[in-house]
Amino acid sequence: MKLRTLATLFAVLAVCATATVDHDKIEPFPQPEPVTVSEKAAIKFKPQLATSTAVCVSFPAVNVAGEITGGLKGTNGNDACKYAPKGSQIYGRSGWYRDVWPSCMLGTFQKGFRGLGSLIGAMTGKAWLWGLTILSWSHRKLCFLVQVRHQILQGGDWQSVVVWIDNPALESSKIVGVSLSKSDTKYYKETTMMASYFAGYQTRSIPYGRSYRSEVISYGSDTTLRFAHYAHPNMDFSTWDGEFQGLIMWEQLTDAAREALSNSKNFGDAKVPFSEEECEKHLDKAWPF
Known about the structure:
Layout: H1 3-13, E1 20-21, H2 37-44, E2 48-51, E3 58-59, E4 68-69, E5 72-73, E6 89-92, E7 101-109, E8 126-127, E9 129-137, E10 142-150, E11 157-165, E12 175-181, E13 187-190, E14 202-208, E15 211-218, E16 226-229, E17 235-237, E18 246-249, H3 255-262, H4 276-286
Parallel strand pairs: 1-4, 2-16, 6-18
Antiparallel strand pairs: 3-7, 5-8, 7-9, 9-10, 10-11, 11-12, 12-13, 14-15, 16-17
Pfam families: NPP1
InterPro entries: NPP1
Protein name: Necrosis inducing protein NPP1
């Protein structure tokens, strides 16, 4: 089914309010064994997320019954969100976009921060960070769009990182570009892949005259990038390894879960980023070649 057709279906499904559950009570979907080309590529190039101990880890957004996370109030630092007792989750979706096949992954952070470990204490109500990853490929390019939305601080804005690889059907496929959002309309685009962007890369300081210099002791992966959620809604390259979240593809979700994720009323004033219109805008703005 093409993405244009799916977007039409979403408009029909997004008609009712969804029940909420305490953020730490949401049961994630188990990650199935990949079978299709899109599922295998999503697992192979799934990035790691490194989270500072001063901020919240990611939490599941929806359960089998279609109930969504209730989030947390924007107070008391990262209390009640230092770890996810039920486990974290990334949600994937795929469908044709022009000549490209996109797969979207969604995860959640329960609170937002400004400054390392400093919560926006003046804010009231609920605050989430929603993470979205879009993978897409044609015969030449595959991309991951790691997207983060800060509901209160950024007024419903979404921040993202896009990772592009060449032909995923090849055993030797590799990452050829990364685009990091600086706003909803601008991206920093990088087509030179540094070894330090990847999981497993390590250095140490050694004496060099009267000072020190860095010496590489491990180059690590060439398929797993590592991104960090520090103390602001943007995603950055991480200087240390992170963790993987369980991936569930869109077609593997229950009907109730898909309806909940498609319902724009569940995400405040922000537009649902799964629509064809929104995906195209992000990919066009992030294109680095």
